[in-house]
Amino acid sequence: MTITINKCTVEDLDLLQEISIETFNATFKNQNSPENMKAYLERAFNLIQLEKELSNTSSGFYFIYSEEEIAGYLKINTNDAQSEIMGDDSLEIERIYIKSDFQKSGLGKYLLNKALEIAIKQNKKKIWLGVWEQNKNAIAFYEKMGFVQTGSHSFYMGEEKQTDLIMTKTLKKLAESPKKVWQHVR
Q1: What is the 8-class DSSP label of residue 62?
Q2: SS (H, E, C) 121-132
Q3: Catalytic residue status for 142
Q4: What is the CB neighbour count within 10 angstroms for residue 180?
């Protein structure tokens, strides 16, 4: 299986919107009202909002391809682009979205490792994310990858207030490295 990960640009805006709506809808439509889903999708994934996020130098989007077919994407945030104030030594994984046909094939791990690679290159001390408390599969995946729950925050699906668990993975400095490289703690 050939896997490639490419950074998204503004030229990818339409594809980013399409895959965002497809993956979010497939994952969450059965647990939320149609009205709340519609409101969220229109707010979060309209072209103006996505272009604003793509243009933010403290955010990054990365498409993942399996055998040259788009399978999902990763969105990361640093500095003031983070959805919670976590400090300049943190990197947020805001989204790991995988299309239904590609789930359970290990692609989420590739995207998580891409985020870890970026965090290490940027000398971050921790990597964190928010995951809906009802998304048991995602929580189990992140726990398996070494994340622990460190808090929670509110997430609004339309007008409905939901709770996201904040999960964090601490990166530690390698003492023998003169470049102050960080590795993830197992």
Answers
A1: E
A2: HCCCCEEEEEEE
A3: yes
A4: 9
For residue 1, count CB atoms less than 10 angstroms from its CB and return exposed for 0-12, middle for 13-18, buried for 19 or more.
Answer: exposed
Kindly give the interhelix angle for 13-28 and 47-55, rounded to the nearest 10 degrees. Answer: 110
What is the mean predicted confidence (pLDDT) over 79-106? 94
Annotated catalytic residue within 62, 97, 110, 142: 142
* Residue 81 CB partners (closer than 8 Å, separation 6+): 56, 58, 59, 92
* Beta-strand pair 126-132/90-98: parallel
What is the reported pTM?
0.89
Q: Does domain 3-184 have CATH number 3.30.1330.40?
A: no
Q: What is the mean pLDDT of the chain?
A: 91
Q: Taking a C-beta distance cutoff of 8 angstroms, is the pair 48, 56 a contact?
A: no
The full set of domain ranges for the chain reads: 3-184
Question: What does the pLDDT look like over 32-60, one tens digit per residue?
Answer: 999 999 999 999 999 999 999 999 999 99
Which amino acid is present at 134?
A: Q
pLDDT at 92 over 70: yes
How many H-runs (helices) and E-runs (strands) does the chain carry? Answer: 5, 8
**pLDDT tier, 159 (very low <50, low <70, confident <90, very high otherwise):** confident
Distance, first Cα to last Cα, the chain: 27
